Amino acid sequence: xxxxxxxxxxxxxxxxxxxxxxxxxxxxxxxxxxxxxxxxxxxxxxxxxxxxxxxxxxxxxxxxxxxxxxxxxxxxxxxxxxxxxxxxxxxxxxxxxxxxxxxxxxxxxxxxxxxxxxxxxxxxxxxxxxxxxxxxxxxxxxxxxxxxxxxxxxxxxxxxxxxxxxxxxxxxxxxxxxxxxxxxxxxxxxxxxxxxxxxxxxxxxxxxxxxxxxxxxxxxxxxxxxxxxxxxxxxxxxxxxxxxxxxxxxxxxxxxxxxxxxxxxxxxxxxxxxxxxxxxxxxxxxxxxxxxxxxxxxxxxxxxxxxxxxxxxxxxxxxxxxx
Amino acid sequence: xxxxxxxxxxxxxxxxxxxxxxxxxxxxxxxxxxxxxxxxxxxxxxxxxxxxxxxxxxxxxxxxxxxxxxxxxxxxxxxxxxxxxxxxxxxxxxxxxxxxxxxxxxxxxxxxxxxxxxxxxxxxxxxxxxxxxxxxxxxxxxxxxxxxxxxxxxxxxxxxxxxxxxxxxxxxxxxxxxxxxxxxxxxxxxxxxxxxxxxxxxxxxxxxxxxxxxxxxxxxxxxxxxxxxxxxxxxxxxxxxxxxxxxxxxxxxxxxxxxxxxxxxxxxxxxxxxxxxxxxxxxxxxxxxxxxxxx
Lengths: 323, 295
Hints:
The structure holds two protein chains of two kinds.
Chain A: E1 2-9, E2 19-26, H1 33-43, E3 63-66, E4 69-72, H2 78-81, E5 87-91, E6 98-100, E7 103-104, H3 106-116, H4 136-146, H5 153-156, H6 169-180, H7 188-194, H8 209-213, H9 220-233, H10 243-259, H11 264-272, H12 277-292, H13 308-320
Parallel strand pairs in A: 1-5
Antiparallel strand pairs in A: 1-2, 3-4, 3-5, 6-7
Helix pairs in contact in A: 3-6, 4-6, 6-9, 10-11, 10-13
Chain B: E1 2-6, H1 18-29, E2 32-35, H2 49-65, E3 70-73, H3 76-91, H4 93-104, E4 116-119, H5 120-128, H6 130-136, E5 145-148, H7 152-155, H8 158-161, H9 172-179, E6 183-184, H10 203-219, E7 224-227, H11 230-238, H12 240-247, E8 255-257, H13 258-265, H14 283-286
Helix pairs in contact in B: 1-13, 2-3, 2-4, 5-6, 10-12
């Protein structure tokens, strides 16, 4: 099949000339994007730089943006990627510092964030003689996360990384999940506390973009929800430096416990902190605008809904169930 | 056509114009709503699911007890949280039995797993039907350029929110805008996060999302935006002045609730839809609607 590739080219020595270059190549229908790039490099332009390694979707090296979608280049066939215009555009993934053409700096994009979550297991005790056995039931939870190849496509699609490169991101949080839920690890609580600090797990909008962008079905957003639930079970509702997150959570639960539904006025005030005068003053312009339109919820004067008592009992019972 | 109505907290709190607009629209269309009055907040993705799943199971059990097969929501977040909870409860019989036994039995309730939860947008497009809705339009909103904004939880996770056979849900909002005679302004941010869930954790990032999305829609020529999610509305409308200030640009993009847009096309006027309660004035936007009464 004759295919036109539009490949992003960037030479750090001539940055002003960066942009797409067209290549027409003859490929079998079964060819992958990496196959196409390899033919271009071998037959037309040996200066084309791209990363590829295993060519079977298990190393994560060839994460690329193909026709505006983040994919693994080796497991994406040209027949699946090609658009109506018969052109395949290949670019580096978003939010990365490009080094040359399709090669980008993974240290800045991902590795430094993965290091923050100490992605290795610290066992509870010294390695026993023979095998360290863990039951299937206990390891099943983390097996999916263990298959992560760190391609970074979840970060590429992340709604927060798009506006804040310092957010730890779904890939590193998935790595954290893998250790937090591994029965052999002895630092679950410390790990949860570490990722609860600013730019950590509580900065995630839980928008589920990461689930859709992961090529291996690991569902990073779902893993993040499990981390949050586990943190709350352990009484960790924020880090040391972002107590507002804890105050917000506590006020939310208190409100639902009291009236069955959310007292938004109370939530705004208590999230700032009742004694935090600068924080409370900061709310005033927004509150004044809402008041002018008769839509500012009046805090604490919140009508108790029928059923509030039963809802409170449910919450109290669920809270008792915490380990 | 009868639904158990779950209006959510925000439609009577921070966005009190949403509740009456939704009820008026449903009434005009002949969609019968019976409000679930004794049920709790969904947890909004904030509360731990250890707490919110039993509360949502109780809501589902109450709706089942009332003889309903479907709950209708008017909030993408309520819709998403309830769909996810319902998925866990329907697909894991042991989990449902444990929730029933531990939390609901005392009140004499049991969730049997029969409920479906549908947002008003889905109800309009799937149950009420495009042709029936078209027949009810008395005021084509010709001349109005509208950018759609879904709210994450109405789109994702996609296997739950737009499962096989329901792929059309990804474009319902655009279809609805066209159906009422307005012009769709497509833009990249339409299915992104509005930033509201991290307003507390990282206000700067949250505001950046508001200015990025409203700014992009404005730059593409939108007169207004429409959203099926009141939490998105709180951020995109209520915090738009703060976001614009941080972004050092003027935006001024009015944000309409879904039922308000539909209501205008059904012949309700701006005051009946309570557009005057929005933070970003809607007056300039609605002036673009050409006078073209069909009946």
